[in-house]
């Protein structure tokens, strides 16, 4: 198949039942690959968050029960789909799904398998079973340099089959000119001049919510007029953990200071009213919510760990603090609240960073280059990304 203006038939597969940055990325690249002229068939967890979102985008996703390692029925169904739809590329986003994908494509030599690796691996996968599995994976695309190094350390795959392709975002949707921040604050019941500190994430301890709430308590004691905005809700299987975190709001007597939106598809709107965005995640392979906030031209504070360091240049486009360090987080927030000039500078540089490095159309071009190079048999042109 020659590239030219040819259409690829791409199967996007993700069995995750949750709803977070990974799943949102699957939906976004599915949408943008379709807009680029390709035929995109999503396969996802049956009746999950991702399936519902894809339907809103006018896809006809195939929902399968794929959340087990051994699923003969899933293997059979997937093989039928691959053959009937003449799939060119299977783009996988959940490593566990390879145990279904690889058996399903046995004997179908022209079908290429690409794994986008969103999460690091703690243990080695260089045993005989994984060596067999990954011998059938044509390429792994890491979402950050941290994940890139983790893959090389833990996976039985050669360096020439691994690259870094950053997840991108839709800059037309995350556009600071689309909203009136004062109007959004008024809708939330706050004075238009109220200073707002916010976080966007599924509600989980690992995302730094306990640190966020401790920071909110200390800032409220010093600056009583400041308000706090939590954008996000519980995801599948984490409902009890989210309830514990939300109960801490009451325990810390912050009910009148914090507004929680719950799960929402209006993230850009709520980001628009934040004066400072805080992202205290304890461990993050990339940080999609951070990129979204920067695209909305917000000064950001995040933790100096893992994939975040691919995004933030300290004091140039954001502020970095140590993870789990509430005192450093409080000091960083207070410093920014008192320094309007620095807030504006960081906000402008944040937007410029996203325009330069994390535009979804750049991601799509890199994915297309990768897919076509695998199909044509040419040497992969996407190298380790340093900048």
Spans of at least 5 consecutive residues with low confidence: 383-387
- In the sheet with the most strands, the strands line up as 3-2-1-4-5-6-7
Order of helices and strands: EHEHEHEHEHEHEHEHEHEHEHEEHHH
Average pLDDT, all residues: 94
Q: What does the overall shape look like?
A: elongated
State the end-to-end CA separation: 32 Å
What share of the residues does DSSP label as strand, in percent? 5-15%
Q: Give the class-level CATH name of the largest domain.
A: Alpha Beta
Total helix count? 14
Query: Which structural class best describes the helix and strand composition?
Result: alpha/beta
- Domain count: the total is 2
Helix coverage percent: 40-55%
What is the third-level CATH name, the topology of the largest domain? Rossmann fold
Count every beta strand, where a strand is a DSSP E run of 2 or more residues.
13
Full CATH superfamily name of the largest domain:
Glycogen Phosphorylase B
The appropriate CATH architecture of the largest domain is: 3-Layer(aba) Sandwich
- Taking Cα atoms only, what radius of gyration do you get, to the nearest Å? 22 Å
From the structure provided, what is the oligomeric state, counting identical versus distinct chains? single chain
Largest sheet: 7 strands, parallel
């Amino acid at each position: 198949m020659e590239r030219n203006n040819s259409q690829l038939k791409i199967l996007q597969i993700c069995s995750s039942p949750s709803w977070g940055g990974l799943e949102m990325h699957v939906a976004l690249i599915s949408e943008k690959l379709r807009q680029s002229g390709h035929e995109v068939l999503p396969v996802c967890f049956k009746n999950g968050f991702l399936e519902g979102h894809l339907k809103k985008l006018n896809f006809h996703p195939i929902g399968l029960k794929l959340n087990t390692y051994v699923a003969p029925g899933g293997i059979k169904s997937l093989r039928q789909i691959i053959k009937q739809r003449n799939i060119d590329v299977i783009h996988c986003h959940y490593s566990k799904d390879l145990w279904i994908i690889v058996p399903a494509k046995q004997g179908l030599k022209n079908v290429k398998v690409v794994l986008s690796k969103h999460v690091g691996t703690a243990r080695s996968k260089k045993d005989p079973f994984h060596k067999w599995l990954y011998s059938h994976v044509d390429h792994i695309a890491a979402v950050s340099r941290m994940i890139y190094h983790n893959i090389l350390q833990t996976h039985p795959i050669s360096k020439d089959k691994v690259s870094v392709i950053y997840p991108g975002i839709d800059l037309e949707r995350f556009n600071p000119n689309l909203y009136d921040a004062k109007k959004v604050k008024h809708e939330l019941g706050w004075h238009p001049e109220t200073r707002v500190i916010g976080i966007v994430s599924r509600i989980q301890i690992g995302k730094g919510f306990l640190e966020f709430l401790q920071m909110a308590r200390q800032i409220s004691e010093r600056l009583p007029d400041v308000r706090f905005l939590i954008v996000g809700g519980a995801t599948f299987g984490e409902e009890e953990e989210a309830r514990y975190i939300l109960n801490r709001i009451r325990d810390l007597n912050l009910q009148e200071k914090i507004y929680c939106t719950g799960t929402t598809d209006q993230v850009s709107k709520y980001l628009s009213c934040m004066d400072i965005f805080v992202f205290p995640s304890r461990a993050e392979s990339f940080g999609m919510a951070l990129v979204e906030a920067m695209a909305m031209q917000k000064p950001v504070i995040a933790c100096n760990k893992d994939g975040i360091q691919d995004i933030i240049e300290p004091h140039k486009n954001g502020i970095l603090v140590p993870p789990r360090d509430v005192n450093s987080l409080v000091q960083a927030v207070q410093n920014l609240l008192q320094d309007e000039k620095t807030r504006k500078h960081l906000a402008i540089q944040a937007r410029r960073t996203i325009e330069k490095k994390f535009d979804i159309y750049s991601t799509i071009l890199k994915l297309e280059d990768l897919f076509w190079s695998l199909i044509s048999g040419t040497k992969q042109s996407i190298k380790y990304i340093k900048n």
